[in-house]
Amino acid sequence: MTAEIGQFSLVLALFVALLQGIVPLVGAYRQNASLMNFASSASLVQFLATTVAFIALTVAYVSSDFSVLNVVKNSHSLKPMLYKISGVWGNHEGSLLLWVWILALFGFAVAAFGRNLPGSLKARVLAIQGLIGVGFLLFVLFTSNPFERIDPAPFDGKGLNPLLQDPGLAFHPPFLYLGYVGLSITFSFAIAALIEGKVDPAWARWVRPWTLAAWGFLTIGIALGSWWAYYELGWGGWWFWDPVENASFMPWLVATALLHSAIVVEKRDTLKNWTILLAIIAFSFSLLGTFLVRSGVLNSVHAFATDPARGVFILGFLIVVIGGSLLLYGLRAPAMKGGGLFAPISREGALVLNNLLLSTATATVLLGTLYPIFLDAVSGAKVSVGPPFFNSTFLPLAIPLVIAIAVGPLLPWKRGDLKGALSRLKLAAFSALVIMGISWWLAEEAPILAYAGMALFAWLLVGSLVEWADRIKLFRIPLAKSWSRLKNLPRSAHGMTLAHIGVAMVVLGITASEAWQSERLGVMRPGESVTVGGYEFRFDGAEELKGPNYDYLQGSFTVFKDGDEVVQLTPEQRVYTTPPMETTEAAIWPMLSADLYAVVGEEDGKGGFATRIYHKPFISWIWIGSIVMFIGGAFSLSDRRFRVGAARKKKAMPVAQSPVAGV
């Protein structure tokens, strides 16, 4: 009965979404308040209906209801409870249900927290959100039904993909989808603005918190995915420029550009058309990622191997959404003129440069991702575009971007003095030279880009702190007054500083781990030792053990530094029977200075075991920096200006009624 309840709830959600997509648009056109207000009620009902459906599927997984085909394919009675729950979204059908639920959640959030929105704009935003919901609900119900029954029901299920039986993958998809689907709100705001023919600073202020929330969730979702790849796949890397990795990275790049572009619209009433276009493109990349993962055109550890017929549906939906929105943009955007003028050297100019670099970087990633697919479709030729292409095209764009991040916030609006801004960054420039010199002196020989990366880290870190200190006039006025300015500083200013510091930390982690990584691959016998990165790794042997739903080979390494024991590492090689698959579980000892990383493999038949040992300097800073970026976004989101939007003007009290009118 649980599956039938879920099925009925999805059908109800579809009809409500259809009404939500039509009635408020008619109401906004006629300026009928009751029809416009219907959008909020419909969004609540749609959210409740999808919530019931999601709970129903979760109950089916938790109770191991093997009369539901989706549960049979992706669960097993012996699976730990965490993976029974995460199995709900660890498959094509369930992940789409999660997508639909989050879509309804964001629509309901706009209805609940958008009280200050103009009635017509709010109605149109929720209507567009409802129409997006119609497309995805049709896709779920007619091609990817998670509640399909199987008769007779098998005794047990086939189990979840062992690669997904990991805490990192349990939380990675929900955060990633919160980012993907969160961009649907910015898209809905953009389309609503095009329909109304009006984009102003108030619109930018309303759209920024939703963009910021989606950007934050995407940041932490991508970080969780890279952390999972780092310790679960056993190859020692954290990013491979896999097409599905790129599919999540491209919307993040565009969302970052959108965040900064919206600031210009809010502060200077310009770049309106560009900001609208970015909002459309950001969500378009989210849909493109959905197509790549579910169409069957890619073979990836991240991709769902699904029926290509489903890909045709998504492709059609993608064409309708992207094509329709760009057509509307082409018709309405020319009528929306920007207001403020600005010089190239100004805060606006720096943000435009930021957008140009981010957009170009996105285009290079898109080209490298889609070129093999297009070539295969046109000529049948198989090519692989890997890290060498992306590193050689993306890095030259990232370097000036990081340089500009430190300079831009020090420039005033409208017209700035570049020389003056650079003079305030003398400490940052000096720090960059010092760190580059220390790296050259202490570290082993490395490519020149490694030393440049260390300089960029210091430049951005110190530059961000200099800008923050400049805001509170630290050391230029009494400390008590600086403290007072600090307390009165908007939270968004603190959030920006934290986010930029997080970027600097990521730059440090990427640079040091890629340039000065030490590794040793080979066969080791019990009692043998090797030295990697200044640490001695002694292999103590391996033994066969049994886990809750797998058998595994567990190796043991004792790590020493200058003769003192540091840690014991116990990597595993797991063998699952349901479904049959082998996985690698790396043993990692994370430190601020470096990660110690060990992997054990199969026995060679002569008493030795294949081993992989790495010393990865500062690699943990990649994920620490990502968390700091997320915290910075959350801190900015807590700014009252973002939470309440543009406040409505209060009506003036008549003088005759004021008890203090004469004061």
What this model shows, in words?
By secondary structure, the protein is an alpha+beta fold. Among the domains are: 1-160, Four Helix Bundle (Hemerythrin (Met), subunit A) (Up-down Bundle), CATH 1.20.120; 424-516 and 621-631, no CATH class; 518-618. Helix content is 62%, strand content 11%. The protein has 20 helices and ten strands. It has helices at 2-30, 33-62, 69-74, 81-86, 92-113, 119-143, 167-196, 201-232, 243-268, 272-294, 308-332, 347-379, 387-407, 418-423, 426-442, 448-471, 479-488, 491-515, 620-637, 640-644; strands spanning 518-524, 529-532, 535-546, 550-561, 564-569, 572-577, 580-585, 587-590, 594-603, 609-617. Strands 2, 3, 4, 5, 6 and 7 form a six-stranded antiparallel β-sheet that branches. Strands 1-10-9-8 form a four-stranded antiparallel β-sheet, with helices on one face. α7 crosses α10 (272-294). The longest helix has 33 residues, at 347-379. It is globular, with a radius of gyration of 27 Å. 50% of the residues are buried.
